[in-house]
Design brief:
By secondary structure, the protein is mainly alpha-helical. The chain has three helices and no strands.
Length: 81
């Protein structure tokens, strides 16, 4: 694919084994897991940065709720913290 580039990474052998098992159980590729995992990780770090930036409880709740809405849609739109 044109929008992909090959990379090399050193991954803990136990973590690789767990990732392979997870991928096999769900019928997905390890590459897809890595891409989605990076997206979640970067979003998590951005959320944590925003939480450190704001002290207002209401703003922090909105930041956390936005993260959960994006990454845990199973909670539904009426989920309250």
């Amino acid at each position: 694919m044109k929008n992909q580039v090959p990379i090399s990474a050193r991954i803990n052998s136990t973590l690789k084994w767990r990732a392979d098992e997870f991928a096999n159980d769900r019928g997905m590729s390890r590459n897809r897991m890595i891409n989605e995992g990076l997206e979640v990780y970067m979003s998590l770090e951005a959320m944590r940065s925003n939480l450190r930036r704001y002290s207002s409880k209401d703003v922090r709740k909105k930041i956390l709720k936005g993260f959960l809405k994006t990454w845990v849609p199973e909670l539904g739109p009426d989920y309250e913290l």
